[in-house]
C-alpha cells in the first residue's frame, strides 16, 4: 500500500464528495427554505445526465452538453415546482414523500419511454481525457481533477451567493421565518421556484459530470439521492455548511472504505473471505457512520433542533 | 352511518378477495389465483406498515428492510435444506428447513430484531430525519445483500420447490392462496384489536399530541418502538410468504422502491384505514395487470394516479367509496 | 403543619444573554393554591418547563414530594403525581372527549402495554374518565370530537385529563385564558374546591381569579421572584406595585 495509492483514493473520495455536495445542496436548500422533502431530486440528476448525453451526441460539444444539463434540469425543476411541488408546501411530510415518489415513477418511466432501457454514453472530451501529473508523482485522470475543481468552485459560489447577494439574504430570511419575508414584500412563490430550479440545476450538472465517468441510465439518480440523504442527515438538514462537511465525510468514507477495508481484512483472513467480508462491510460503512453520528448528535453536525 | 358503510365495504373487499380466486379455481385459471395470492401477501405487508404509519404516524421509508429480511429468512433456510448443507453445526446441527411454520417464525423474529435496532436508532429523531434515516437503513441492507455473495449477491437465491405446510399441498395454487388469505385475515383481526387496545389508544395519541402523552406519564418513544417492531415483524412475515410465492428472493425485495410500493398500498387504499392496504394492494395488482398489458410503461400511469390521489383525494379508495373518516371509537 | 409538596431551590436558567430564571426558589404546600404571576416575558413559561421537566436548569434543584427530581424527565415526574395543564391545549384532537379522558386514566394506571382488550370497554379506565368529565361538567360532551370543542371546553378537558391522573399536585398554566367571564368564574369555583384534593401551582393572568383563589402569590419579574405572600401582602408590596404599575404610581 503506497502513499500514492492513498492520495489517489483521497482524490477519488474528494471527487465523490463534491458531487454529493451538488446533490445535497439542492435538497437541503429546498428543505431549509420550503420545508419540503423531495425524493424526486434524483430524477433531476438523471434529467441533467440525459440532456447532456443527448446534446453531446448531436453537437459533439461537451461544454454545450454541460450547459444543456443545467438548462434542462433547471427547466424540469421549475416545471415540477410550478405544477406539483407548490401544492405540497402546506402538506405534511407523508404527502410530500408520496407525491415526489410518484414523480420519480413518472420521470423514470417517461425517460425509459423516450430513450429506451439501454444506457447512453457520454464521453469525456478529448482535451480533458488522460492523466495529469500532480506534485508528489501522482498520475491522476485530468477529468476527475476537473470535476473536483468545478465542484469546489460551485461550492464557493454557492456560499458567496448565500452570504452576499440579495437572493441569498432572502433565502436565509426564508429559512428563519417564512411569513415574515412574505410580509416584507418578497414575492415568495417566485423565490421558491427560483430556489427549486437552482437546486435542480446543481443536481443536473452533477448528473452530467458523473455521467461521463459512469453510464447514463434510468434510475441512476436514486443511489445518489440516498447518499445525499445520508449526507444531509449527517450534516444537519437545512445547513449548506453541513451539506459540504457531510458530503466530504461520506465521499471519503465510502471511497476509502471500499478500497482499504478488504486489504485490512486480508491481514487476518484468507484473501477470498477478506474480499467478500471487506466489501460487505464497506457497503454499509457510511450508514454505520450515520448511525454513529446520530447517536451523538440526533440533528446532525450543523443541525439546530430536529 | 359512515362507519357502517366503511365496515360493509371492508367485508365486501375481504369477501371479493376470497371469491375471485375461488371462481378462478373452479374455472381452472391458476394465474388469477396467483395474482390474488400476491395481492393478499402485499396487503399483509401493508397491514404491517399501516401499524407504524397509520396508527403511529411513523413515516417509514425503510419497510423493504423487513420485507426483504423475511424473504431472505425463507431463502436461506430453504436453500440450505435443498442443498443438504447445514446452516450451522453449533450449538446443535441445523440443516435449514423447508417447513413454512419454522420459516415464518425465523422471518418474524429476525425482522422484529432488525426493527428493534433500526427503530431504536431512527426514533431518536422525528419528521424528515426519520424518513431519511429509515430509508438509509433500508438501503444499507440492500447493499449488504448485493455484496453478500454466499447467498447469491445481486442475482438472488432461487428455491426449486415451494416450502411445505403440514397437511397441505402448497404447490396447489388455491391451497397456497388459502394460507396467505388466512394469515392476512388474522393480521387484520390483530391490527383491529391493536387499534382499540390501551396500547393503540396511547400510540395514536402520541401521533396527535406528544406533550399530552408525556404529561399523563407515558413514554412516546417506547410506544412507538414497540409499534415499529410489531409493524416490522408483520411485514417480515409477508416477505417470507412473498419469497415463497415466487420461489425466489433477491436484493430487489430490499430496495427502496419496494418500501415506496408498500407505502403506496397503504395510501391507495386510504391512510389509517384498517382495510386500506387490502384495497390498495388489490388495486395495485389490478393496475399492474391491466395497464401492464397495455403498456410497458404502466408505472407512468401509476405515478399519475398516485399523484392525483395525494393532491386531490386524501382518503384514497376507501375514502372515495365510504366517505370521510369518523372520529375513532 | 402542611407538608412540602414541591420545592425549587435556586433555579437558574439562561438563554444566551437572557437570564430567564435567576435563583428562583418557591414551594407548594398541601392544601394550598400558590399563584405565580408576573408580566409577560418574566420567565413564567421557562420556570414551568423546569418544574415539569421539559428543560433542565443550569443550576439549582427541583424537589417533588421530598425527592430530588431535577434529573428526571417529564414522564417520570408525571408518574410521580404531577398533573399538568398546558397554556395551549395539548389534547389528542382526533379523539372524542371521552377518549382523551380515558387516555389520562390509562396514564394514571400506568399499564399501557396491553394489546388486545378493548380500551373503551374497560371499566377500570372508563369510570375514572367519566368521573373526571362529570366534575368539570363535560360529561354530556363525552362523545364529541375534541377538535369540535370550543376553546373553553378544551380548557375544561385539560383539567379533566389532569384529574384522571389523581395527581399529588397540579401545575396549571393559564387555565383561565380565553374563558370569558362566566367560564372563568365557574372554573374559579371548581379550583377552589380542588385544592383539598391536591395543591395547585397556578400560573394565571386573570387577576380576579388569582386574588380570589390564591393562598399565596409569588411575583416573578425578569426571572426573579420579587415577592411571595398573601393576596393582601402582595397588594401592599411596593416592589410589586413598581413592577406592575411603573415608578410614578409607587412613589
Question: Would you give an account of this structure?
Answer:
The complex is a heterotrimer of chains A (306), B (329) and C (251). Chain A has 306 residues and is mainly alpha-helical. Helices cover 75% and strands 3% of the residues of chain A. In chain A, helix 1 (3-34) runs parallel beside helix 5 (142-164) and helix 2 (41-59) packs antiparallel against helix 3 (62-83). The mean pLDDT of chain A is 89. Chain B has 329 residues and is mainly alpha-helical. Chain C folds into 2 domains: 4-81 and 167-250, Rossmann fold (3-Layer(aba) Sandwich); 93-153, no CATH class. Chain C contains 10 helices and 10 strands. At the A-B interface, helix 4, helix 9 and helix 11 of A face helix 5, helix 10 and helix 12 of B.
| CATH class descriptor name of the largest domain in chain C | Alpha Beta
Roughly how many Å apart are the termini of chain B?
13 Å
Strand order, main sheet of chain C: write it out. Answer: 6-7-8-3-9-10
Question: What's the CATH architecture of the largest domain in chain C?
Answer: 3-Layer(aba) Sandwich
- Strand residue content of chain B: under 5%
How much is the radius of gyration of chain C in Å?
Answer: 19 Å
User: In sequence order, what are the helices and strands of chain B, one letter per element?
Assistant: HHHHHEHHHHEHHHH
Distance between the terminal alpha carbons of chain C, to the nearest Å? 39 Å
Largest sheet of chain C: 6 strands, mixed
| Helicity level of chain C | 25-40%
Number of strands of chain B: 2
Of all protein chain pairs, which has the greatest interface, and how many residues does each chain bring to it? Answer: A-B, 44 and 43 residues
Amino acid at each position: 500500500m503506497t502513499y500514492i495509492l492513498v492520495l489517489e483514493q483521497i482524490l477519488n473520495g474528494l471527487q465523490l464528495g463534491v458531487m454529493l455536495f451538488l446533490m445535497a445542496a439542492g435538497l437541503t436548500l429546498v428543505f431549509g427554505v420550503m420545508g419540503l422533502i423531495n425524493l424526486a431530486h434524483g430524477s433531476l440528476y438523471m434529467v441533467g445526465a440525459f440532456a447532456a448525453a443527448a446534446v453531446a451526441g448531436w453537437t459533439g460539444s461537451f461544454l454545450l452538453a454541460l450547459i444543456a444539463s443545467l438548462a434542462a434540469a433547471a427547466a424540469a425543476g421549475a416545471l415540477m415546482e410550478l405544477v406539483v411541488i407548490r401544492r405540497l408546501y402546506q402538506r405534511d411530510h407523508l404527502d410530500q414523500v408520496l407525491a415526489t415518489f410518484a414523480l420519480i415513477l413518472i420521470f423514470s418511466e417517461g425517460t425509459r419511454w423516450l430513450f429506451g432501457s439501454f444506457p447512453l454514453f457520454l464521453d469525456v472530451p478529448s482535451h480533458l481525457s488522460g492523466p495529469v501529473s500532480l506534485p508528489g508523482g501522482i498520475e491522476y485522470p485530468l477529468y476527475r481533477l476537473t470535476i473536483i475543481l468545478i465542484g469546489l468552485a460551485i461550492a464557493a459560489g454557492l456560499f458567496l451567493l448565500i452570504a452576499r447577494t440579495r437572493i441569498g439574504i432572502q433565502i436565509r430570511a426564508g429559512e428563519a421565518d417564512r411569513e415574515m419575508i412574505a410580509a416584507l414584500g418578497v414575492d415568495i412563490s417566485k423565490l421558491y421556484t427560483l430556489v427549486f430550479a437552482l437546486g435542480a440545476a446543481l443536481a443536473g450538472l452533477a448528473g452530467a459530470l458523473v455521467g461521463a465517468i459512469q453510464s447514463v441510465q434510468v434510475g441512476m439518480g436514486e443511489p445518489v439521492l440516498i447518499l445525499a440523504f445520508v449526507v444531509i442527515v449527517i450534516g444537519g438538514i437545512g445547513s449548506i455548511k453541513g451539506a459540504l462537511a457531510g458530503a466530504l465525510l461520506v465521499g471519503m468514507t465510502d471511497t476509502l472504505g471500499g478500497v482499504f477495508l478488504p486489504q485490512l481484512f486480508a491481514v487476518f483472513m484468507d484473501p477470498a473471505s477478506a474480499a467478500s467480508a471487506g466489501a460487505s462491510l464497506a457497503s454499509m460503512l457510511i450508514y454505520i457512520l450515520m448511525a454513529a453520528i446520530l447517536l451523538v448528535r440526533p440533528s446532525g453536525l450543523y443541525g439546530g433542533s430536529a | 352511518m359512515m362507519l357502517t358503510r366503511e365496515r360493509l365495504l371492508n367485508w365486501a373487499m375481504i369477501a371479493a378477495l376470497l371469491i375471485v380466486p375461488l371462481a378462478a379455481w373452479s374455472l381452472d385459471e391458476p394465474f388469477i389465483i396467483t395474482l390474488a395470492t400476491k395481492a393478499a401477501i402485499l396487503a399483509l405487508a401493508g397491514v404491517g406498515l399501516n401499524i407504524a404509519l397509520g396508527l403511529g404516524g411513523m413515516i417509514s421509508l425503510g419497510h423493504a428492510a423487513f420485507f426483504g429480511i423475511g424473504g431472505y429468512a425463507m431463502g436461506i433456510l430453504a436453500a440450505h435444506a435443498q442443498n443438504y448443507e447445514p446452516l450451522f453445526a453449533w450449538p446443535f446441527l441445523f440443516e435449514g428447513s423447508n417447513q413454512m411454520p419454522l420459516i415464518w417464525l425465523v422471518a418474524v423474529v429476525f425482522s422484529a430484531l432488525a426493527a428493534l435496532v433500526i427503530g431504536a436508532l431512527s426514533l431518536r429523531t422525528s419528521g424528515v430525519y426519520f424518513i431519511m434515516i429509515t430509508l438509509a437503513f433500508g438501503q444499507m441492507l440492500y447493499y449488504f445483500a448485493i455484496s453478500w455473495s454466499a447467498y447469491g449477491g445481486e442475482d438472488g437465491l432461487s428455491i426449486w420447490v415451494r416450502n411445505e405446510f403440514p397437511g397441505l399441498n402448497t404447490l396447489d395454487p388455491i391451497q397456497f392462496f388459502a394460507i396467505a388469505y388466512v394469515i392476512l385475515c388474522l393480521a387484520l383481526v390483530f391490527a383491529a384489536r391493536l387499534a382499540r387496545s390501551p396500547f393503540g389508544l396511547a400510540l395514536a395519541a402520541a401521533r396527535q399530541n406528544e406533550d399530552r402523552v408525556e404529561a399523563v406519564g407515558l413514554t412516546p418513544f417506547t410506544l412507538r418502538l414497540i409499534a415499529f417492531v410489531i409493524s416490522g415483524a408483520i411485514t417480515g412475515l409477508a416477505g417470507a410468504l412473498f419469497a415463497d410465492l415466487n420461489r425466489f428472493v433477491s436484493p430487489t425485495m430490499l430496495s427502496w422502491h419496494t418500501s415506496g410500493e408498500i407505502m403506496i398500498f397503504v395510501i391507495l387504499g386510504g391512510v389509517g384505514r384498517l382495510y386500506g392496504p387490502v384495497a390498495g394492494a388489490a388495486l395495485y395488482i389490478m393496475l399492474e395487470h391491466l395497464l401492464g398489458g397495455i403498456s410497458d410503461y404502466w408505472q407512468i400511469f401509476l405515478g399519475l394516479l398516485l399523484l392525483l390521489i395525494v393532491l386531490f383525494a386524501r382518503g384514497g379508495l376507501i375514502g372515495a367509496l365510504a366517505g370521510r373518516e369518523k372520529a375513532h371509537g | 403543619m402542611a407538608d412540602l409538596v414541591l420545592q425549587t431551590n435556586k433555579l437558574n436558567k439562561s438563554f444566551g444573554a437572557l437570564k430567564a430564571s435567576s435563583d428562583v426558589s418557591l414551594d407548594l404546600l398541601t392544601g394550598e393554591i400558590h399563584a405565580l404571576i408576573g408580566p409577560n416575558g418574566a420567565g413564567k413559561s421557562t420556570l414551568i418547563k423546569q418544574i415539569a421537566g421539559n428543560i433542565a436548569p443550569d443550576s439549582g434543584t427541583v424537589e417533588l414530594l421530598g425527592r430530588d427530581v431535577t434529573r428526571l424527565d417529564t414522564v417520570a415526574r408525571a408518574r410521580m403525581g404531577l398533573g399538568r395543564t398546558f397554556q395551549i391545549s395539548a389534547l389528542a384532537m382526533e379523539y372524542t372527549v371521552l377518549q382523551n379522558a380515558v387516555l389520562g386514566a390509562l396514564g394514571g394506571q400506568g399499564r399501557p402495554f396491553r394489546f388486545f382488550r378493548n380500551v373503551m370497554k374497560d371499566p377500570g379506565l372508563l369510570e375514572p374518565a367519566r368521573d373526571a368529565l362529570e366534575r368539570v361538567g363535560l360529561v354530556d360532551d363525552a362523545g364529541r370530537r375534541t377538535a369540535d370543542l370550543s376553546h373553553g371546553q378544551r380548557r375544561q378537558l385539560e383539567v379533566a385529563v389532569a384529574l384522571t391522573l389523581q395527581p399529588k399536585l397540579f401545575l396549571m398554566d393559564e387555565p383561565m385564558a380565553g374563558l370569558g367571564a362566566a367560564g372563568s368564574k365557574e372554573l374559579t369555583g371548581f379550583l377552589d374546591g380542588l385544592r383539598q384534593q391536591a395543591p395547585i401551582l397556578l400560573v394565571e393572568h386573570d387577576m380576579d381569579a388569582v386574588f380570589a383563589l390564591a393562598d399565596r402569590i409569588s411575583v416573578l419579574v425578569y426571572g426573579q421572584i420579587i415577592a411571595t405572600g398573601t393576596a393582601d401582602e402582595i397588594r401592599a408590596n411596593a416592589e410589586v406595585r413598581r413592577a406592575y404599575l411603573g415608578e410614578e404610581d409607587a412613589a
